[in-house]
Amino acid sequence: MSREKEFKILEQIKSQINKNALSPAIKVVILMLVVTGIVYPLVLVVIGQSTLPYQSNGSLITINGKVIGSKLIAQDFKSPKFFHPRPSSASASNVDPDITSENALLQISNVSQATGINQNALRTLVELNIERNRVSNMVAFAPDYVNVLEINLELLNQYPDVYSTFLNNADPQKTTAGITGLGGGES
Amino acid sequence: MKSELCGCVLPLPKEQDGVNLMNPIVELIVVFGGTLSLSVPFGLYIARMISYELRPLEAPLARVENGFYKIIGIDKDKQMTWKEYSLALMLTNVIVAGFIFFMLVFQNLLPSSTHVNGLSIDLAFHTAISFVTNTDLQHYAGDQQLSVISQMIPLTFVMFVAPASGIAAAFAFIRGFIRKNFGLGNFYVDFIRIILTLLLPLAFGSALLLMLLGVPQTLQSSVTINHTLEGHNQTITTGPVASLESIKDLGSNGGGYYGANSGHPFENPNGLSNTYEMFLMLIIPLSFPIAYAKLVGKARGVSLLLTILIAFGILLAIAFSQVSGPTGLETRFGSFGTEFFNTVSISTNTGSANSALSGMSPNPVMSFLLGMFIQSVPGADGTGIMYMIIYVIITLFLVGLMVGKTPEFMNMKINPKNVKLAVFVFLMHPALILIPTVIAFTTGNAQSVLSVPAGKMTTASGYTQALYEYTSASANNGSDYLGTSANTPFWNWSTAIVMFLGRYAPIVLMLAIAGSFTVKDRKEAIEPIRTHGPLFISILLVMTFLLTALTFFPFIVIGPFSM
Questions:
Q1: Rounded-to-integer distance, Cα A15 and Cα A18, Å
Q2: Which of B259, B24, B231 is nearest to B139 (CA)?
Q3: Quick check: is B1 in a domain?
Q4: Where are the strands (E) in A25-129, listed by range?
Q5: Pick from B69, B329, B382, B445: most CB atoms within 10 A?
Q6: What pairs with residue A67 in β-bridges?
Q7: Handedness of CA B267, B271, B274, B276 (dihedral sign)
Q8: pLDDT over 90 for what percent of chain B?
Q9: CB distance A22–B232 less than 8 Å?
Q10: Who has greater pLDDT, A21 or B87?
């Protein structure tokens, strides 16, 4: 066999390999793209929206039908009447919704001063929140913490007179809080 | 419930010392107990996938798979040599990378994506390589720079492709040691079976559980709130997070939906999700030694598992020796939950930290670096066990030199060529880390991303950040300090090259080793050096740490040691 012939045969084999190798690779990519990139997430969206709408949409809390925030995402609190979250730059996510129990207990005197609410009453609320978080973490799987939005909503709920300006903010028509989504979706 | 009427002083949550010590112990027991007990059925199942034995629900599964083979046009019984197997793996991965690249560059042209821009060429290239190599190093913030379609179609999809490729490589690698003259299997068959009958069902169930715990799953890209309690505006990014999150952890991927990754409350809402995600990251890497035990002998597999667990215990002990935070950490995890999660995440080469790495103390950082240097305690899905077997081969060779016997593995001689390939796999890692680190510093690119003032020396922590970036890239880990600040052409291109070589060169070399073992004659004699039992476990452990420490010691000393 001459050199040229050998070369030609080699070329033929090469192109054969490429053709045969490329076709299943492209097909398997397209097929898996449909299964894992489209069907899989969409089926989960459908299941989530129909069976777990609260969590699937971001654990949103509403007052009188208006969304005021997510239980899981910190929001700004400047007023001395509220408990304050950590400065956003101090956490990993910048939206850490929680503060340590020590931090919450330290804030009690300020909130009490600004609102006139008894310190012991505030401490009870803090401890109830800690207890609720303990339960939702089966005690052992997280340290004690306080969810800032939840405890502020609890204040709003129990002392509508003190917080009437903020309630009107959410809905000028109504004066009592009809909060939904609070503590929802806990396992 | 107007408790202001109550004048009594309520007790503070006391007995914290006792609680603080008990909870971590319970969590450690639950994570390891749960993972190890489930790794047995999973490992036995994986063994059946490797050896093509009957699986549970074989008939319906086979029917679906056969349909897929037919569409793709492959003969499922056709066996591949190590070269064909590597070629099929590379081809598939390159096509996927190309697809991701185009999807990301042109993401703004897709429906309901006008709020985002297409990624730059270098960032899109970096991201495509990063995800397809199972690294998931992110020089972008997903919640700000990607559309729902980009997160869902190309990125969730590639999070199946990358681990499936790694697991398939491990299947072929293990077959090399158990089958004589029968090829290493068929890549496409393995790839399809791994996605359809291992990753997809687990990811699906886990996504449901994560949704229950608070992870969103919607097509809505954001929720706009006009009135927070104090009347501010707030925009909250949502999307199909749960479907990405579950495969992100299960597949040792680690690319977060949000820039903050597992630290973001929507990816990891509470202590239970934190614990479950640790289980997800550990389950497949810890199932492989069980599969290995089933296929090549119980004692060998159990010895490998024990070696991995002891080494992993050492990494955890180093991390726990120093408290981290609270700056840069999330309150709901605390120091323990953060260090535990991050050590699991980084030593499985998932790389999805639940805190800012800058919030971690030097000892945990050293533990992370060690985990990435070793790559196999327990390592990523598939490749972790492959690297562990490479350590076994190198150890056998070195011990063989000491006692003056030809090293043998599973009654087959390890010839010089195999030893050379194994050593090459081992040495590639330090080369891919140290050379680019040096280049980054000599060209000034490291200093500029670390914002070191002109004429000033880089600090130890600055140096650690640059070293960490290439370590993470080469180990296909994906955790990093630099994040979006490394979105410069130099860092994008250089880490992309490192990730590519760090992924495919070792896989191809390891498949070459498996290919040469599959044609070897097997003796029935007793191995000169036993590859099981307490003595072997100790030698393997010492060798693994010693080789790694010797290679990287100078760089750890001027890095985290001096922080």
A1: 5
A2: B259
A3: no
A4: 60-63, 66-70, 98-100
A5: B382
A6: A62
A7: negative
A8: 83
A9: no
A10: B87
Give per-residue pLDDT as tens, A66-80.
999 999 999 999 999
Q: For residue B207, give the chain A residue with the closest CA.
A: A44
Q: Is residue B107 part of a domain?
A: yes
Q: Which residues of A touch B232 (CB under 8 A)?
A: 75-76
Inter-residue contact B186 to B78 (CB < 8 Å): yes
Handedness of CA A100, A102, A103, A107 (dihedral sign): positive
Look up the pTM and report it: 0.93
Quick one: average pLDDT of B478-490? Answer: 95
Burial code (b: 16+ CB inside 10 Å, e: under 16) for B109-121 equals: ebeebeebebbee
B219 is in which domain, residue-wise? Answer: 24-225+233-562
Q: What is the pLDDT of residue B2?
A: 37
Would you place residue B10 in the very low, low, confident or very high pLDDT band (cuts 50, 70, 90)? very low
* Contact assessment for residue B139 and residue B256, using Cβ atoms and an 8 Å cutoff: no
Task: Using the predicted structure, report yes or no on whether residue A20 has a pLDDT greater than 80.
Answer: no
Check if the beta carbon of residue B85 is closer than 8 Å to that of residue A48: no
Q: Are B362 and B369 in contact (CB under 8 A)?
A: no
Domain annotation covers residue B361: yes
pLDDT for residue A10 is more than 80: no
CA dist., res. B298 & res. B207, Å (int):
33
The first and second tokens of residue B258, run together, are 């949000």
| Domains held by chain B: number | 1
Position B7 in a domain: no
Task: Please list every residue in chain A whose beta carbon sits closer than 8 Å to the beta carbon of residue B260.
Answer: 92-95
The model's pLDDT over B491-512, given as tens digits with 9 standing for 90+, comes to 999 999 999 999 999 999 999 9
Closest partner residue to A72 (CB to CB) among B226, B240, B269 is B269
